[in-house]
Amino acid sequence: MTRDFFVNHGVEKSWVSLIYFMDEIVSKKTTEYITSLVKRDDDTLEALEDYASKNMVPIVTKEVSRYIETLIHIIKPKKVLELGCAIGYSAILMAKSNKELKVTTIERDPKMAQVARENFKRYGYEDRIELIEGDALEELKNIKDEFDMVFIDAGKSHYNEFYSDIVSKIYPGGVILCDNVLYKGMIADDDLVKRRKKTIVKRMRNFLDIICEDEKLITSVIPIGDGMSLSYVKKEDD
Ligand SMILES: C[S@@+](CC[C@H](N)C(=O)[O-])C[C@H]1O[C@@H](n2cnc3c(N)ncnc32)[C@H](O)[C@@H]1O
C-alpha cells in the first residue's frame, strides 16, 4: 500500500509519514537487500560498527560504507578531507581501502575526537589519519592543503558554507561526496518536513541547487542511505 492510499482514506499526513518514515528514500526491503549483499569479513570495521550501534553514534550505513569503499578504489585519491569524523569509522574505512591514502578529518565534539584518536592508534592508522579537533566552519579557513576528495558528513545546515570553503581546496578532477542530502526524505517531500527541521531542509535544498547548477561541477544525487551527492570537479579540458 502506498502513502497516498492512507492519505486518501483520511489518515493524518503526519501519521502516514511516521508509518513510512524509513521508507521515504528507498524501501526498507531494498535497503535490507542491498545491505545483505555487502559481504565483508573485517574485524576492525565490525568492531567500530558494533561500538557505534551500542553507543548510538551516527556513522554511515553499511551499504553507504560499501559505496564509499568502491569509490575510493575507482578514484584512488591520495588525499581526502573529511568533515565529521565521529569515532573515525568512515576515515578508517577510506584509509583501509587504499594504502597510499592520507585522510585529514575534522571533528568538533571533544568526546568523539578522543574516541577517534584512540581508534586510529588501536587499529594502526595514526600515521595516515590526521584529526583536527574543532569546528569545521573555523578550521577549514586554516587548511592550506589541497585534496582530491572531500567527504562532507557534518552539520547538515552548513553544507553551503563548507562548500564555499572547500571548493578552492580540491584539485580539478577531484570529487566532493556528501552524506544526508535527502535527509529522511524531507528534502524531496514537503509532507515529511517537521516544523523544527524547516531551516535545515531549506538550506539543504539550496545547497543541492548550488552544486547541481555550478558549472565547475558535474553532480549526481544518489538515493542510498540518507541520500548522497557525488560531484566531479571539472578539469579545464572537460
Ligand atoms: C554523522 S557523524 C560523522 C560520521 C562519520 N563520518 C562516519 O561515518 O564514521 C557527524 C559528526 O560531525 C560532527 N560535526 C557536526 N558539525 C560539525 C562541525 N561544524 N565541525 C566539525 N564536526 C562537526 C558531529 O559531532 C558528529 O560527530
Task: Describe the 3D structure.
- With about 240 residues, the chain is α/β, with parallel strands linked by helices.
- The protein has one domain: Vaccinia Virus protein VP39 (Rossmann fold).
- Helix content is about 40%, strand content about 20%.
- It has 10 helices and 7 strands.
- Helix 5 runs parallel beside helix 6 and helix 8 runs parallel beside helix 9 (about 160-165).
- The model has no long low-confidence stretch (mean pLDDT about 95).
- The structure holds S-adenosylmethionine.
- S-adenosylmethionine binds near residues 59, 112 and 154.
Features:
binds S-adenosylmethionine, alpha/beta, 238 residues
CATH architecture: 3-Layer(aba) Sandwich
Please, how many helices?
Answer: 10
> SSE order in H/E notation?
HHHHHEHEHEHEHEHEE
Which class best fits the helix and strand makeup? alpha/beta
CATH domain class name: Alpha Beta
Could you tell me the CATH topology label.
Rossmann fold
Q: How many domain units?
A: 1
Name the average pLDDT: 93
Could you give the topology of this structure?
Layout: H1 3-8, H2 13-19, H3 28-36, H4 43-54, H5 62-75, E1 79-83, H6 89-97, E2 102-107, H7 110-122, E3 129-133, H8 136-142, E4 147-152, H9 159-166, E5 170-179, H10 198-213, E6 217-222, E7 228-233
Parallel strand pairs: 1-2, 1-4, 2-3, 4-5
Antiparallel strand pairs: 5-7, 6-7
Helix pairs in contact: 5-6, 8-9
The structure holds S-adenosylmethionine (SAM).
Residues 58-60, 84-86, 89-90, 106-109, 112, 135-137, 153-155, 158 line the site of S-adenosylmethionine.
